[in-house]
Automatic annotation (TrEMBL):
GO terms for biological process: methylation. It comes from Cellulomonas fimi (strain ATCC 484 / DSM 20113 / JCM 1341 / CCUG 24087 / LMG 16345 / NBRC 15513 / NCIMB 8980 / NCTC 7547 / NRS-133). This is Protein-L-isoaspartate O-methyltransferase. CDD domains: AdoMet_MTases. Keywords: Cytoplasm, Methyltransferase, S-adenosyl-L-methionine, Transferase.
Amino acid sequence: MGAAPDPGRADDVADAMRALAREHFLPPDQRGRAAEDHPLPLWHGQTSSQPSTVAAMLRLLQVPVGARVLDVGSGSGWTTALLGRLVGPTGRVLGLELDPQLAAWGAGNVAAWDMPWARVEQAEPGVLGRAVPGGWDRVLVSAAPRELPPALVEQVAEGGRMVIPVRSTMLLVEREGGHVRVSTHGSYTFVPLR
C-alpha cells in the first residue's frame, strides 16, 4: 500500500489518488458520495476537499520523491496520505490539524496505509505550521487565510514551493535565490484558516 510512485509515470498525482481512494478518508455516512466532485462534510464545520481541487493543488505543488512536506489543515488525512505516496519512503510528511478529534481520526486514517514517513498531529493553537531547520521543501495549505501568512512563507525552504488559497484565490509561493515569488492560479472556496 505504501509504495512510492514510479518517477517515470506521466501522472503520479492521478496514480496516488487511485491508490488512496477518498472513500477511505470519509466518515461512514459520506463514503457512498466519495466520487462526487465537491467538498463533503467531516465534522465541526470541516470538509474533505473536492478531488479535482486536491489534484490541482498537488500538481501545482510538484512534489518530488524524497521531499519534506508540511500539510496544514490535513483534516481526514487524505492529503497527508497522498503526499506520503508522492514523496515515498525517503521523504517526510507532517500533516497538522487544529481540531483534536479530526487530528486523531486523520492520524489513524494515515497510519492504516503503512507509510511511517507520513503522519498527522494536532496543530498547536495560535501557531501556523511548524518550523523546521532549513524549512520545508513543499507546503500544502487546505484552509484559506484572509492574507498570505508570513509565518508560513518563512517555513518554505530555498527552492521550495507552497500552495495556499488566500480568500478565494489559489496562490503558488516559490522561494528561489533568497526571493519569494507569488503567482495566482484560479478561484476556489475553502474553509477559513484558524
